[in-house]
Design a protein that fits this description.
7 strands, 250 residues, 44% helix, alpha/beta, binds nicotinamide-adenine-dinucleotide, 8 helices
């Protein structure tokens, strides 16, 4: 089904982790709705594929590791030489392997938290000053039901996402006197490449907890992100929007 468009005319969005999965679908809907989009991702092959397939002059791509503040800052400044940044979608993330906490590789644990939490911090830290200057901004931090519930055998991911939710609540309140909204979304499982990082049993366990009894479709997720990113969202901020098919009803 072709979902509705929002009005993103004259808006510029940075979508992290947009080379595939959720981020790519958000990018496509933003473009269809009139926005300019810059994708930051570390996967060069998928970045090249995205720009070739989409073939839209309003799309640009850059290899950026969101966990590296200097890279994020330099890339932000590059964009700001041309245009303001109106929308930031902090979507880049990894789950890491399925393992109990006491058996988790220490360096990988840190890396998972670093990308999910520090990636979100780094992008907000470098882009928010421009939003303050313009008194306009919409930030959506892609968290997960794992950050609300805490998934067994996914302690690094659950911790990183829970921390990103905490960051959203603080930053949203810090910016609430301006026309800047900062919200988090907590999706349940959707069939993207990220599922390959977990065991099949773990994915099945996640699915069995969803009362809707199915995976979330990427287009359904994009619809929620688009409303939160649009001018129509004039009031909601510092909030966590659930899209878990009835799993995490709080
Ligand atoms: N698909 C799901 O079931 C699900 C459920 C809940 C939350 N999420 C979250 O949604 C977001 C998008 O995930 P997805 O399902 O589209 O997965 P995906 O693996 O398809 O896409 C994630 C993208 O992030 C990029 N990325 C990873 N590390 C990066 C880094 N350091 N810097 C820049 N880019 C980086 C990857 O290259 C990839 O293109 C993630 O934050 C994920 O945790 C996904």
């Amino acid at each position: 089904m072709d979902k509705i468009s929002f009005d993103f005319t004259n808006k510029t969005a940075v979508v992290t982790g947009g080379a595939q999965g959720f981020g790519l679908d958000i990018t496509k809907r933003f473009l269809r709705s009139g926005a300019k989009v810059i994708i930051w991702d570390i996967d060069v092959k998928m970045l090249d594929k995205a720009i070739k397939n989409i073939n839209n002059p309003n799309l640009s791509i850059k290899k950026v590791d969101v966990s590296n503040f200097k890279e994020v800052e330099n890339s932000t400044n590059e964009i700001l030489e041309e245009t303001n940044i109106d929308i930031l979608i902090n979507n880049a993330g990894i789950t890491g392997p399925t393992a109990s906490l006491w058996e988790y590789d220490v360096e990988i644990w840190k890396k998972v938290v670093d990308i999910n939490l520090m990636g979100t911090f780094n992008c907000c830290r470098s882009i928010v000053p421009n939003m303050i200057k313009n008194n306009y901004g919409r930030i959506v931090n892609v968290a997960s039901v794992a950050g609300k519930d805490g998934n067994a055998n996914a302690s690094a991911y659950s911790t990183g996402k829970a921390a990103a939710i905490g960051l959203t609540k603080s930053l949203g309140k810090e910016l609430a006197d301006k026309n800047i909204a900062v919200n988090a979304v907590t999706p349940a499982g959707a069939k993207t490449r990220i599922l390959d990082q977990m065991t099949k049993e773990h994915v099945q366990r996640m699915l069995s907890k969803v009362p809707r009894g199915r995976f979330l479709e990427v287009e359904e997720f994009t619809s929620l992100v688009c409303w939160l990113s649009s001018e129509e969202n004039t009031f909601s901020t510092a909030a966590v929007f659930d899209i878990s098919g009835g799993r995490s009803t709080y």
